[in-house]
Amino acid sequence: MTEPQDAEARRAIKPVICYPVETLPVPDMALFDRARANLTKVDEVLVPPRDAACFTVPAGHFFRIKSVEGSQVGDLNLWARDDLSERFYSGKTRALHGTHITTGQRMWSSFPHLRPMATITHDTLGWYGKDEFGGSVHDVIGTRCDPYTHQLLAGGQYHHCCHSNLTRALAQHMAVSVDQAEPHVHDVLNVFMCTGFTRDTGQYFMKASPVRPDDYLEFYAEIDLLGALSACPGGDCSSQHSSDVAACYPLLVEIYRPDAVFLETIKTPRRNGYDGTHGT
Fold first, then answer.
1. What global pTM score does this model have?
2. What is the 3-state secondary structure (H, E, C) of 4-50?
3. 6, 11, 170, 172 - which has most CB atoms within 10 Å?
């Protein structure tokens, strides 16, 4: 293939940010910090290694995903508790905030709702930043390990991929079949996972997670939430996905209630204001 004479000039054109976020609603982090000073733990769910579990969080409460025994990544799905058609939209979250999210950034919901579901209020791995390979933690790039891609690339029937874990957990929570639950499982927030894109081929990569026991990622529930978290069969994702060989550990989800004064002041974000007519 022959390069055009102006190839370098074309490559030299400066990029333009697709979604300038100067007008994006900003969470009141000072308010959250005050609320965090007086939290009461009200519930917890232990997610077993290579499996998943569901949990619920009332609007105005906080929840933490915590490393408890060893370096372990988790795949997180979120839905509006009473309407599973409203779910986490990883692609739009990525378009607004970038490939990885941390304190002060939000998990946004799917169309036609497009509103904040949860705001990250504390991240003990916030120090990691971006490493020399372009890697960072808590990505909204990867879709989740799944048995379909596993079968395509390696053959066989592996049932403890995060997609299957989340499907089983949701089916059990809703008391429905896995066939009924599976369509609700969606692209994830990869909690604690360290990922990026290779500079030469642009491929999605993973590397050993920097998470250690007692590290946690904390969220504020903007709406009533149903969550499902899978403790990935890749463990710390230092070598492979979907593995019975990798060392895997549980993850702990903790639910916290702020004081009554804070709860009296909260406002649930409204559904997106677009009128839905689409020009008709």
1. 0.96
2. CCCHHHHHCCCCCCCCCCCCCCCCCHHHHHHHHCCCEEEEEEEECCC
3. 170
Residue boundaries of the structural domains of the chain: 47-265
List of residues 6+ apart from 193 with CB closer than 8 A: 73, 137, 138, 139, 142, 206, 209, 232, 237
The answer to whether 196 and 136 are in contact (CB under 8 A) is yes
Angle (nearest 5°) at CA 37 between 32 and 39 = 90
CB-based contacts of 81: which residues, under 8 Å, 6+ apart? Answer: 56, 223, 224, 225, 226
Q: What is the rounded distance in angstroms from the CA atom of residue 151 to the CA atom of residue 18? A: 36
Listed residue (65, 42, 94, 83) closest to 204, CA to CA:
94
Nearest to 237 by CA among 138, 99, 126, 132: 138
Element (H, E) at 148: helix 147-154
83-87 vs 74-80, strand pairing mode:
antiparallel
Q: Is the dihedral of CA 113, 114, 120, 126 positive or negative?
A: positive
Tens-binned pLDDT, residue by residue, of the chain (280 aa): 899 999 999 999 999 999 999 999 999 999 999 999 999 999 999 999 999 999 999 999 999 999 999 999 999 999 999 999 999 999 999 999 999 999 999 999 999 999 999 999 999 999 999 999 999 999 999 999 999 999 999 899 999 999 999 999 999 999 999 999 999 999 999 999 999 999 999 999 999 999 999 999 999 999 999 999 999 999 999 987 777 889 999 999 999 999 999 999 889 999 999 999 999 9
Residue 144 contacts residue 163 (beta carbons within 8 Å): yes
The SS3 assignment for 260 reads helix
* CA 258 – CA 107 distance, rounded (Å): 21
